[in-house]
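Sorry to interrupt, but I need a hand with the structure work. Could you write out one complete protein record for me, on any chain you like? Just paste the record in under my message, thanks.

. . .
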Amino acid sequence: MTENTVNTEYLNNDRESFTENAPVTDDSETISEISMKELLEAGVHFGHKSTNWHPKMKKYIFMKRKGVFIIDLQKTLIMAQEAYTYLKNSAANGYTILMVGTKKQAKNTVAKFARQCNIPFIANRWIGGLLTNYKTVSNSIKKLKKYEQILESDTEKKNYTKKEIAQMTRKKNKLEESFGGLKNMKGLPDMLLVIDSEYEKNAVAEANNIQIPVVGLVDTNANPDDIDVVVPGNDDAIRAINLFIKFFANAIIEGKKLLQQGITEAPSREEQSGPADDADGPDTASSNQADNQQQTAPEPESENTDKPDDTSNESEKTTAAASPEPAANNNINNNQTGDNNG
C-alpha cells in the first residue's frame, strides 16, 4: 500500500463523516467481492486516535496522520477474502454461525442479513451467559416459542382470559427482543461472527472461554489476539459495517447452497484450518457444548500468543488533515516510539 493508494480525496475526509453522516441504503443484495475503491469510499481505512489504540494492531496499520491511524487496506483485502473463504467453507460443512452486532450502526443490518442467511443472530444486546450457561438461555427460548404458539392459535387462546393473554403478550415481546434471533438455534453455535470485536468483548470472551472460533471486524483499539480470523477495519462507519456484513452474508449463503447441493468444497473437519499461517488444524470441541451439537467448527491458530495489553476504552474520534504527508515521515514503523508514548 503506497501513499498514492490512500489519495488526498479520501484522506481529506474524517472518521466521523463516515460514522455519523453516511446515508444508510436500502440495498439488501449481498456482494461476493470487495474492491480497494469500495473500502476507501466506505472509510474502512480510518482507525482510532493514536492515544486510543492497541499495540498489537501495529502490523495492520499503514501510517499515522495527524494523530489518526490509517489501516493498511491491502492487508484488509487479503484478510477479508480469507474470512470469506472460511465462512463459506464452514457453512458448506453445516456449521452454525452466530452473527453478533449490537451497536447502533450495525444492529439493523445484522438482523436483516442474518435472516436472509437463515442464521441465528444477536442484534439488541449480548445476553450474559449465552454461551457459558446455554442451558438456562435455552429455557427462555422455549418459553418464547410456547408463548408464540399460544398467541398464534385461536383455539389455544380461548383457554385464557383477556388479562392472561395481555400478560403473555408482554412477556413474549420482552423475550422476543432478547432471544428472537436465536429461536432456530438448536444448540451452541460452532462459531461467532462479530461486528466490532471491542464493543462485543463479552461475547468474544465467552467464545474464547469455551473455545468457539471467532471471525471479527477489528479496529485499531482492539486486541486481535482474541479473534481467530481477523479483518482489520473501521468498525464504526455505517458504510463500512454494511459493506462487510453484505460480504460475509454472501459467503454464508454460498456455503449453504453447496451444502444443499451436497457439494462440500471445504476440507473435512479433520483437515480444515483457518487462514492463519502455521495453523495446525481444528481444536477439540469444548466439553461444555450441548449434547446434540455434533459438529464443531475448525479453529484457526492465532498468529499472536501474548496476553492482551491494557488499552483505553476511549471512544473519541478525531479528523484527518486535508493534505497528505510523506509516507516516510508517517509510516507507523518509523514512529512507533512516538505512538507508544501517545
